Every structure is written in C-alpha cells, then in structure tokens.
Amino acid sequence: MRGACLCGAVAFEVEGPLRPVIACHCTQCRKMSGHFWAATSVPHDRFRLVRDEGLAWFRSSAEARRGFCRRCGASLFWQPEGEDRISVAPAALDSDAGLETAEHIFTEAAGDYYRPEGQPPPPGAGPERLRASCLCGALRFTLPGPAGEITACHCRQCRTLSGHSAASFDAEEASLQWEDRQGLAEYRTAGGGVRGFCAGCGSSLWFRAADGAFSVEAGCIDGPTDGRLARHIHVADKGGYHALDDGLPQVAED
To answer: In the prediction, which pLDDT does 127 show?
Structure first.
C-alpha cells in the first residue's frame, strides 16, 4: 500500500496488516493537524520511504518526533523513541480499506468546539480576542473572537494535509495581529488557494481561498475558542475508517 503527502515530495509504502486507527486529541496533535490527528501503525520492517526530499522531523517531546512535509505541510508520521513501529496518518494512504477507529485517546484535551464522540457542546463565553500559535511557538498571532461556527472539511486535500480532517472558522485576514511570523511557510494548492503552516514544526494555521476568503484552523487556538462545530462538508471524500456520529448537517461536496 502506498501513501504520500499532498505535493508528492514525501512518498512511502507500508505492508499490512496495519494496526486499527487511534484518534488522538492531545494538544500536540491538535496543533499539528489543526483539529485532531488519527493514526494507524506498522513495524519498521514493513515501512519504506520511497521519496523523502520533502520530509522534515520535529522533536515534539523527549519521547517522540513528528514527521511532516516541509513543502506542503502535510502531517504524516509520529515516531516514538525506542520502539520498532511508526505511526502513519491513514488519510495519507492511497486506500484506508479495512481500517477502523478502535479508540479515542487524550479526550480530556479535546477542543471546546467539539466532542470526540457525540454532539458538540454549546459555545461558552470565550475571550474577546483569541490567541493562536503553532506547536513550537515560532508563529503567534491574535484575532477577534469568538470563533463562532466551525466547519469540518473532509475533502482529499484537507484530509491529506491534516492527517485526518480539517476544522476551521472564517476570519478577516486583516484582523490578525502577528506577534511572530518569521517561521511562516505557504503552500499554493492546485485550486489557487494558499495554506499557511509552520516551517519548523509543521503546524497547520490558516487557509486563503482563491477568491480571498480566509479561515483559521480551530486547533491552533490557545484556550477556549467560544466556537462550535456546525457542519461537515465534502463527506463524499471522508475516510472510511471513522463514522460521523455528532448529528450535524453533512454535505456531500461543499
């Protein structure tokens, strides 16, 4: 089975059987992916890098490092120290046939705008101005709150870049006040949009559509968003390894 990032600068092969998928809601996974991350796993002897010119690693803790594409920002791998396995985002695979989500972990760290399972909670009273940052802290900005309605996108592009699915809210780009943006990287997609991510750690931050519409990834917000997941779009492209059980509206395309 083959897999790759969005731009193709990282490609790999895995040989099954693959471990069931685990969805992780820890702060690190939410920062990196922009929502939350999901991963299967395979022993090293059944994993092979085919192309690695775009591969970058970020040491996220003393126990593990995270692999992403430095060109497009796709979140691809999680590599624990001292183990003979590597975790792989199923959204990067050519096919996720046969995979199922076995469990959700670090659910206590989930964002305030959704629940790992079931309907999202009502929005709370968040700050008038939201703070956002990448995982390594090289990129930091503020913007007006609340986040309001948040949309989960399951298109192939968002799935490949995030490692699972994206969740973002509309914002005025001019309203962002940057505290540090020296590590900002941008990737222009085939449709003319631009995705902003951290060149140092790979964290997904924002998307600017070809028509200028701008959205911020909910996972990059520090603390409460005062938002609520409102809908799922492009569900026709959703990964087959998980179900949508929150009762929210689902749109096949957009």
So the answer is: 79
